[in-house]
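in:
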């Protein structure tokens, strides 16, 4: 999920909770850091999310669609920090998602559903000082999809690469 708005709160020294919002999704994430030494930490978490989509597909046709999705991600990374200016991390993530919905087209309604299992790896680097940070990350996932439209069923699989670039301004 690429958030438009995110807030993070650290209720405990090694635990933080974040809420991420985009135009069509919301995610709550909890992360715990195990500090191994001054430079290295191991971070694990859980991030359930919900997404929705509703509206007309094309203005010139009478087509309406409604979709929702529910999933969870379980990230695990090893992070290295140098003088709190540079950070490097690598790890894995496992995700499961279920999506369901309907498409109504010219008075006919079709139901859709999909389930995806998504194991993957992630690599990232950030540089920053005090309140401003720049971050680059690459996620590589292998996805197994099982889909159903009415009675037709399909199995799909493949690799998904997701690059990210983020500027962080801390208040």
């Amino acid at each position: 999920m690429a958030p438009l708005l995110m807030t993070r709160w650290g209720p405990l020294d090694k635990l933080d909770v974040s809420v991420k919002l985009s135009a069509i999704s919301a995610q709550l994430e909890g992360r715990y850091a195990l500090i191994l030494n001054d430079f290295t930490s191991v971070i694990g978490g859980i991030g359930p999310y919900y997404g929705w989509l509703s509206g007309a597909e094309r203005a010139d046709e009478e087509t309406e669609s409604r979709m929702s999705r529910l999933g969870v991600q379980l990230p695990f990374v090893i992070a290295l920090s140098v003088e709190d200016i540079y950070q490097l991390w690598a790890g894995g993530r496992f995700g499961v998602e279920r999506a369901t919905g309907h498409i109504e087209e010219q008075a006919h309604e079709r139901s859709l559903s999909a389930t995806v299992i998504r194991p993957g790896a992630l690599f990232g680097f950030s540089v920053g000082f005090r309140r401003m940070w720049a971050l680059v990350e690459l996620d590589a996932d292998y996805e197994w999809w099982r889909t159903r439209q009415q009675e037709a069923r399909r199995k799909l699989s493949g690799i998904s690469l997701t690059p990210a670039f983020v500027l962080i301004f801390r208040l």
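note: The longest strand covers residues 108-129.
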